[in-house]
């Protein structure tokens, strides 16, 4: 197997009985160092409480709470270097705002801050249930012989739902997976033009899916004027978008919250192509579960493809370590929201934040905890009478569990 980009591999599972955050921060900004030391103290205190409750034989809910606090402090701690390393794409605002929040946290409030970032940042870029993807074009449409006709057909589609986003994304991405260069099977079997394109490129034929960077389900049933949303789902959306705004991504929030003229069920801006990737099924699943990241480089729209585990990269035909995204239909335009817009490439700042979440979730142990939670939720039909399932119930009812409708 060719060399691949990997996240730092841990020597052992994330222990709860000792601290794991680096004692010396990998940055030299004084204000960040002061805030980071606060997080180090919080992790130390959480580990101390956990060990004490283990020694005392405390009830499981109390031990679970202590473990939860350890995880929350580690998430905040690993956010510092992850955001700092993405300053070339995100700027200094995210890590500076994080330090301000840490400085304002008193006592156990820092653990609540960590849970906020799990619930409303990490889980905003994590999808646990992949929906059945619609075909790239309406079944009744005849086969198209010329590629230009296919592109024109795609970009004239001005609807703002998932199906139309897929059609436009495939046109933008040359009907290929961005990472493996595989060509979309549905388009290949349906259109002579794509058969000709495959013959020219020699690409493998695979199912290519529409992948959302920012979790599509979060913006369901959300309106732009929801200043004080009452429903839990809307509160989750408000908190998630609030973090993006705090990090300086107000313009992206405005795009995500665009509502189509006939779309009253959700913010159809989540289907804006700035939030869309074209990926084969397995890469899509890995991206959704924070197992793979697109890490922006210094070159425009150029990304290092980074895997959390080396085993996950085995078997992918045509796998690329670095990709540069281009618009295949660069001279074409489509109508949306009353104006003419080019087919936008995926937004680098959204991909940078997804990459931050991958690194933080992996290094802190949150990725494993969320995967375990998904399995527990699926396997647990009846909660324990002695309260041993209380933490699971709390997690099950929280925004940590994200599914796509």
From TrEMBL:
It comes from the Eukaryota. Pfam families: HNH_2 (PF13391). InterPro entries: HNH_nuc. Residues 200-295 form the HNH nuclease domain. This is HNH nuclease domain-containing protein. It comes from Mycena alexandri.
